[in-house]
Specification:
There is one protein chain. By secondary structure, the chain is α/β, with parallel strands linked by helices. The protein has one domain (5-293): Alpha/Beta hydrolase fold, catalytic domain (Rossmann fold, 3-Layer(aba) Sandwich), CATH 3.40.50. The protein contains 7 helices and 10 strands. Strands 3-4-6-5-7-8-9-10 form an 8-stranded mixed beta sheet, with helices on both faces. Strands 1-2 form a two-stranded antiparallel ribbon.
Amino acid sequence: MRRHHPLPTLLALALAAACAPADDNAPATQASGASSATAPAGPRVPRDPTGAGELPPAILGQGGALQGESVQYFPGDLAATGYLAVPEGPGPFPALVIIHEWNGLVDRVREVADDFAAEGYVTLAADLFAGQVGTNPEENMALVRAAQGDRPKVIENLNAAVAFLKARPDVTGRVGAMGWCFGGGIALSLGLDGADHDATAIFYGALVDDPAVLARMDHEVYGTFARLDQGPSPEQVTAFETALRTAGIANDLHIYDEVNHGFWLRIEDDAAARSAPALDAWERLKAYLDRTLGS
């Protein structure tokens, strides 16, 4: 049973943000099995959306046993092994691609995928590091630099993730992308340069402040940021918001006071400071995904 918890573009820029603590970087044991993009067989996650005042368990560090499966979704690199979580029921469902932080696809991200499936989204956690994960900042940065060195392949990887989801008969055809830190900046890059999709959600990722570049975006953008962060800083967020408005791109951006980088994915590290802003960010995110992807 899933537990609810009430309240108690550019790849070069992605190098500016530091994300996960070292103890969350350990290689994860992946779920077994594989899924076809055209045959929605495999395990299912019980539908159990959060209610008012409730946070999903994964971001509190209280995710349960993994309920999805490993998948190879990117023909261009069979070492890239994603994690697919599918809601119970016939669907069709909207879909999400979620993009990991600088340390790679670890269990915390897989647990978040399960939580989004419980909300009613077919969710694919992408793998941009070909199955590798970092265990310390030096390893993490090496993985980021390797991805940075082959930006076209990163976008190709995520285009394949979008196509994989759209090909499933249990998906409505509406797909969003979201990520944290390194993944937040990549989500923005995908929104600007990737395959057509319908939502971009950024959690403290690298930003762009050129209205001419941002005009390539064709949908509303969501963003959650921290006042005490410098990657991106509040000033960079303000410049991003101004550029989005100049480009005519609808947006829902918010800077939360008294929290720092990484606050949303790891609330348990400082629950007293992080719980209230994390809940507000979650409720904004749910509303955003509902209006851009449907439910």
